[in-house]
Structures are given as structure tokens and as C-alpha cells.
Specification:
This protein has 238 residues and is mostly helical. It is built from eleven helices and three strands.
Length: 238
């Protein structure tokens, strides 16, 4: 549980003294069913927490509400435009956004040894985490936490140019790995910052991106990595 406490204390999350009941829910949010099956075939709830499926159900509804409200209040967009931007919460997009948040979320997910941490699992665990946070702190704190974590992602999302999604799908299929995004530096004043991120594939740097937000910088890093991969000869060429 100490790892969970340390994770929750990060400034962008801000949970300092969770109750034992809340800690158990957060543990469930990070637990894939394959972990329980592997560790405890009898599914003994006294020894291992529940998996994230029920919390995912709740967190999905909270996330959709928060994003829908943000889009509704963000200017005078048409229903069609808002519907298009709501795609940010779909599993394939959310599962690519979470690894780029630089909060160590992937390391918290517990899955069976032979279970790959797919975009679907990443998104489901994140939604379960939202559900656990909502039950612990309530709706308004959940809104603030989500805006700190993914507000820039929501504001800049485009399903047509989601390079993080494209990169993650590509390397998971060909290399069975996930991209890792590292903040290299932040320059400029707080009201006009510039972020520089690198994206690593199997511990090697494949792309660097800069931008006024973390979301833009990581998208640019993913785009650079895709370009680099396209320039790399395949093992069968030549």
C-alpha cells in the first residue's frame, strides 16, 4: 500500500491521507483480473483486493460527465463538434494518453505475468482510478484532478492527428512494448511555458517534441518517433 500512498501524494493527484477503505479501492483500481487469477486462483477477497471492473463502470461515467461539461462550456460548439471531441475518452485514445502523463501510472497496474498491458487495460484501470477517486473525494475534486491531468489533452485533442495513439498501436503490434514519455525540460515563465519531451521505445530515444503544453509536446514527440520509424529499414529490406 505504500506505493499507492506515494502515487496518490503527487501534486497533480493530491490525495494525502486516504482512509483504509479508500486505499483498498485504489488498489482495486490498479488490479487486472489476471493478477487475481494468478496470485489467488480461489479469488479469496480476504487476501487480495477486487479487480477494477466495477470501479471502471463508475469511473467511465464520471469521466464522460466531466469531459462533456468541459466541452459544453468551452465556447459555442455544435452538438456534432462536441461529439467528435468526446472521442478523447474512447479506450484507444485514453489508453495512449495515460502513458504520456508522466505520473507513473503504468507501473501501478498489476496484471498477470503473461498479460500484456494493452491500451484497453490501461484505459480501464485509469477509469477505475477515477471511480475510486470520486468515491474518496467527490465530484468537484475529481473534476479538478482530471483537469490537472488531462485538461490539455481534452483541449487539444484531434482524432485525425492523434500521433500518440498511432505510435502506441504500431509498437505494441510490432514490438510488444509501450512508448515511454520523459520530460526533459520546462522553460519560460509560468504563463508562457515550453515543454520538451522525449519518447523512448525499449529505453532508446526515438523522438523529441516541444510545445506550449505537455499534451502538444508529447504529441510532437510521438510524431517525430513515427517519422523515425518510417525511415528505419525493416529487417527484411536490403
Amino acid at each position: 500500500m505504500e506505493r499507492i500512498r506515494h502515487f496518490l501524494q503527487q501534486p497533480d493527484i493530491g490525495v494525502v491521507s486516504p482512509s483504509p477503505e479508500a486505499l483498498a479501492r485504489y488498489a482495486s483500481a490498479f488490479t487486472h483480473p489476471s493478477y487475481i487469477r494468478e496470485q489467488d486462483p480461489g479469488n479469496n477477497a480476504l487476501l487480495f483486493p477486487d479487480n477494477f471492473e466495477r470501479l471502471e463502470f463508475l469511473g467511465d461515467r464520471v469521466l464522460n460527465l466531466v469531459v462533456a461539461e468541459y466541452l459544453f462550456l468551452d465556447g459555442d460548439q455544435s452538438e456534432g463538434a462536441m461529439t467528435s471531441r468526446m472521442e478523447v475518452v474512447r479506450n484507444q485514445h485514453l489508453g495512449a494518453i495515460v502513458p504520456s502523463l508522466d505520473i507513473g501510472f503504468l507501473k501501478m497496474i498489476r496484471a498477470g505475468q503473461n498479460q500484456e498491458k494493452t491500451s484497453r487495460i490501461i484505459a480501464a484501470s485509469f477509469e477505475a482510478f477515477i471511480g475510486a477517486f470520486y468515491l474518496d473525494k467527490g465530484l468537484e475534486p475529481a473534476k479538478l484532478m482530471l483537469m490537472r491531468l488531462i485538461g490539455d489533452e481534452i483541449a487539444t485533442f484531434s482524432s485525425d492527428d492523434n500521433y500518440k495513439k498511432l505510435l502506441q498501436e504500431r509498437v505494441q503490434k510490432s514490438l510488444q512494448i509501450l512508448p515511454e514519455y520523459i520530460l526533459i525540460k520546462k522553460t519560460g515563465p509560468d504563463h508562457c511555458p515550453e515543454f520538451t519531451y522525449q519518447v523512448l521505445l525499449d529505453k532508446e530515444i526515438w523522438g523529441t517534441g516541444r510545445g506550449a503544453t505537455k499534451a502538444i509536446a508529447t504529441q510532437n514527440a510521438a510524431r517525430a518517433a513515427l517519422i523515425a520509424l518510417d525511415r528505419t529499414p525493416s529487417p527484411d529490406s536490403g
